[in-house]
Amino acid sequence: MRIDLHTHSTASDGTDTPAELVRHAAAAGLDVVALTDHDTVGGHAEATAALPAGLTLVTGAELSCRLEGISLHMLAYLFDPDEPELARERELVRDDRVPRAQGMVAKLRELGVPVTWERVAEIAGDGAVGRPHVATALVELGVVDSVSDAFTPDWLANGGRAYVEKHELDPFDAIRLVKAAGGVTVFAHPLAAKRGETVPESAMAELASAGLDGIEVDHMDHDTAVRARLRGIAADLGLLTTGSSDYHGGRKACRLGEYTTDPEIYGEIVRRATGAFPVPGTGGS
Description:
By secondary structure, this protein is of the alpha/beta class.
């Protein structure tokens, strides 16, 4: 089985619609794909309706969190999307995305970059607006060569010149809320240092003690040494280890299935979940 547990669609900051994403996942030879848009489940219905035969969909979301001033992302799988407390927190994060992006545009203009909010909003479309949409506008203007190049201290990285904070969950609250909604939590790209400051290993231990299920190890932003270090941390803490592409369509240079999750780990994630079940494809629409 080939299993990719971290992808994004136009419901947040990917460039594939949810329907396109599942079709591309099947074409890439995946057996299981998780749709984990930022702080939203808005793409799940479309992805489910278009799910090709032979492909299983894992519903999820990537939750925006902050711990002692450091941003981090929490992948949440197979939770009940209608659980009210978790739904309310996701809505608070989404509602803060527009003023946050507008603030980044204002900072960029102060730095002499002729970016406009109208263009960023057009790029985002119906998705949850975020930094990748602002980064895409910078690429269009020739300020940076790629979306990844915008995520530096000069521009949009955590603490960067044009960075603006947003409402984010406390990760311990995120774990509690996802668990209460029957879901499973995995710390996304925990040592992706090029994105900005990362949490110390002591924080990972505390999150594990609070019920964290796993950490994402095999990821494009982790080199070989970092992956080995994370496997050691996971073994010490009794955490599951996952691998995934963090696919964003044409917005990032990563391919569906570039990194994958071991089928036994996937089976354990499914076993632990009680809020929702993986959806088997029946041919799509």
